[in-house]
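U., I forgot to send this yesterday:
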Amino acid sequence: MNDIDPDLYVQTQEAAEILNIAPSTMRQWARAGRIRYLRNPKTGWRLFRAGDVYALRDSRQEAQQ
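Result:
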């Protein structure tokens, strides 16, 4: 995993790019509970912990090997 600040949050688009998936898939995974998220109280946008996103990316890569 990258040396990422575990308290850093990323928005849906950036998380989807890290995981190499569509933003709509990222939203579906969030709704399904595959990855945790918070809502920005001002905008309502989903925010994902960068550490969770990279951990999911790493586990997906391991599963493909």
